[in-house]
């Protein structure tokens, strides 16, 4: 499986447009040891020619241009054969509306995520200009699915696993109580190779099911939104905790670093990094702590082959 | 009036994600004399400290980061005091949904544009998380309005002028027949200075009213989407003419270059350039032709003071 990291920041990106925290100021001024990041998304491929994009970030146009593997090879063409959504957050879905230049799209999502984006959303008509422009395909929980792209099978196999989360903020009133289909992690493989990628950019908790979904992966991407539960509050940037936003922090006694200590995957990366996350700084003690435990931090432009 | 060109390309940007035309291939490979452009938007300011953004492109986050004048000056802050929309096209509105990090926004638009974006659009709830997060203000036709920003008056004065256009593609069925409020040009000034900016990024025709709206401006931005009416058809990229897309071409006997020959503004710029537009190439004969007539071509990052 070929992997390209298109984006590795949480919603809002790094730096965030209206944020002047130490990290955002520092990366703009070039005074901290950190690089800018667009909003979290990866592309995976079995063959290297046709790609499955996981999550469609608002910055997808910029991300495509930064990734030559995703450039068109004809007058009207895209190597993007299909898109898979892990949840209905706008930083994962809004980019669909930027893929509207009369290009056929295939999108895999749970019913709940598909309905959250398409119902009561007149903007979606921009993707319904001709028969077959936008094709939604189901993403069942706990069952491996061979991803069929615009031009047929991609050779990529995806299994969605329910991961603790919640409905996106803008749908909270509409969707009501959380549902296992609100938020998934993906186990990604290909038809010719046993190596498995586990992609879990958002998780409210590390449960036994989550651990089981990651245990046999050769490469794990996991929710690195926050280092600590009260990170935003202490920085004076808001009153919401990581728990209130359905993200388990990386650090501390209840953090994912400890909860996932059993993992043996050679490559383990935190992604979906909020702009306040101390892991963004290459010289932070938090970064040293995760490196010492065999983890690293995802960055835009990373290329992996499993 | 201070002006920053945030983006100068038509919907889809340059290069466009699924386009392999000669221009898109060439700019990606660096083999033509052209620079990449994000989707059309400008920022204007009376004082240089607080800014009014005209049109919210899907790439607004990238555009803000590329423009130091728009960087925050506090932990949670934005120098963007207000946003003005010229029509409801997604390349002008989608960026609103990327300005969602609990920052108060003031948006000026005609009733028709506001309703086109907010009605039957569940995504807008992301901008309605607290009282006063998103404030819409009317943009009347033919009357100068002092733009009041998040923190009070901006010193920028805007007059919207009806310009021939049509409803955005995704709203065609919903909105029915075209309406003068579908598409406007803006006459922009400030309270302390007589110099006027005319901003007309989309126009289906050059009428006497359009000419009158531009006649006394010191700086004109005008619709440069296409050079010729059948540009997409001849390039094999579609079956729609410039007229069908409500854009008057720049060249030819019915083009805007001839129709606006009476303008005497020292600065005249074509903007909203489609990726097929030959004006994108600095060495094209079309570029030489507009330069000879006193026009130039807008580019991302341009700074002007009127």
Describe this structure in words.
With 306 residues, chain A is of the alpha/beta class. Helices cover 18% and strands 25% of the residues of chain A. Chain A has 9 helices and 14 strands. In chain A, the strands form 2 sheets. A 7-stranded mixed beta sheet of chain A has the order 6-5-4-3-2-1-14. A 7-stranded mixed beta sheet of chain A has the order 7-8-9-10-11-12-13. Chain A is globular, with a radius of gyration of 18 Å. At the A-B interface, helix 2 of A face helix 2 of B.
Describe the protein's topology:
2 copies of one chain form a homodimer.
Chain A: E1 2-7, H1 22-29, E2 41-45, E3 51-54, H2 60-65, E4 80-84, H3 90-93, E5 105-109, H4 111-118, E6 134-138, E7 144-149, E8 152-162, H5 172-175, E9 184-190, E10 193-200, H6 208-215, E11 219-223, H7 231-234, H8 256-259, E12 267-271, H9 285-292, E13 296-297, E14 303-305
Parallel strand pairs in A: 3-4, 4-5, 5-6, 10-11, 11-12, 12-13
Antiparallel strand pairs in A: 1-2, 1-14, 2-3, 7-8, 8-9, 9-10
Order of helices and strands of chain A: EHEEHEHEHEEEHEEHEHHEHEE
Q: What percent strand of chain A?
A: 25-35%
Main sheet strand line-up of chain A: 6-5-4-3-2-1-14
Helix content of chain A: 10-25%
If interface size is counted as residues with C-beta under 8 Å from the partner's C-beta, which chains form the largest one? A-B, 58 and 58 residues
Number of beta-strand segments of chain A? 14
**Biggest sheet details of chain A:** 7 strands, mixed
**Basic shape of chain A:** globular
- Overall average residue pLDDT of chain A: 96
Oligomerization state of this entry? Answer: homodimer
| Tally of DSSP helical segments of chain A | 9
Give the distance, in angstroms, between the N- and C-terminal Cα atoms of chain A.
Answer: 5 Å
**Secondary structural class of chain A:** alpha/beta
């Amino acid at each position: 499986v070929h992997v390209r990291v298109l984006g590795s920041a949480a919603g809002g990106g790094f730096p965030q447009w209206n944020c002047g925290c130490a990290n955002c100021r520092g990366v703009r001024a070039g005074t901290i040891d950190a690089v800018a990041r667009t909003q979290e998304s990866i592309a995976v491929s079995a063959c290297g020619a046709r790609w499955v994009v996981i999550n469609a970030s608002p910055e997808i146009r910029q991300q495509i241009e930064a990734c030559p593997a995703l450039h068109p090879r004809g007058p009207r063409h895209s190597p993007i054969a299909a898109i898979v959504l892990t949840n209905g957050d706008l930083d994962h879905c809004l980019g669909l509306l930027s893929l509207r230049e009369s290009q056929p799209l295939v999108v895999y999502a749970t019913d709940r995520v598909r309905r959250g984006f398409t119902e009561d959303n007149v903007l979606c008509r921009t993707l319904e200009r001709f028969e077959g422009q936008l094709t939604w395909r189901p993403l069942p929980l706990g069952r491996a699915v061979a991803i069929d792209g615009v031009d047929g099978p991609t050779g990529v196999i995806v299994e969605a696993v329910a991961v603790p989360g919640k409905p996106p903020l803008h749908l909270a009133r509409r969707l009501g109580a959380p549902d296992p289909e609100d938020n998934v992690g993906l186990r990604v493989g290909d038809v010719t190779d046993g190596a498995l990628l586990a992609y879990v950019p958002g998780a409210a908790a590390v449960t036994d099911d989550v651990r089981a979904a990651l245990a046999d992966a050769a490469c794990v991407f996991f929710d690195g939104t926050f280092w600590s539960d009260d990170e935003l509050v202490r920085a004076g940037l808001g009153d919401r905790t990581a728990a209130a936003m359905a993200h388990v922090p990386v650090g501390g006694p209840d953090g994912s670093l400890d909860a996932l200590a059993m993992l043996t995957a050679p490559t383990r990366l935190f992604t979906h990094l909020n702009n306040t996350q101390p892991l963004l700084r290459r010289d932070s003690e938090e970064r040293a702590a995760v490196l010492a435990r065999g983890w690293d931090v995802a960055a835009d432009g990373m290329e992996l082959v499993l």
